[in-house]
Amino acid sequence: MSKFRGAVVTRIACVAAAIVAQWPAVTAAADIDAQAAARIAYGRHLASECTSCHRSDTQEGAIPALAGRPAAQILELLADFREGRKTNAVMVSVAKSLDEEEAAAVAAYFASLPPPGTTAAR
Ligand code: HEC
Known about the structure:
Layout: H1 2-46, H2 71-82, H3 89-97, H4 100-112
Helix pairs in contact: 1-4, 2-3, 2-4
Bound molecules: heme C.
Heme C (HEC) binds at residues 49-50, 52-54, 63-64, 66, 74, 77-78, 86, 88, 90-91, 94, 98, 106.
């Protein structure tokens, strides 16, 4: 009987340990979501510098749309301007004016928008 009870206690302890072990993962995921949301909000603020030329709605204009593009692609293009692989004068100066954190925030913001041609909410 005491053997059985020992096994039950051990099992409960294991389950409890497993639950406790999950906690950091759960809170870490919430932290990442909060960080991503904060970055997008910061990016939206910074993007007021871009949206006079790059539309942030779902219409395609003469200037390439950034909405809905992967953040990594936007960052790569900004690096192309900053490092001279692309030479549009305005964009070279825009790209050079953004530090790493600002560029990441702006890229995250545009990536979070619905791409041109979609009917998602404007
Ligand atoms: C005064 C107008 C203007 C402003 C402001 C501006 N851009 Fe641009 N951007 C352009 C033009 C024009 C191009 C196309 C240049 C080229 O590729 O020769 C371009 C191209 C780009 C590209 C490359 C797109 C592609 O498909 O090749 C990225 C990325 C970009 N801009 C990001 C930004 C970001 C981010 C901001 C704000 C921080 C910004 N731009 C502000 C005019 C502007």
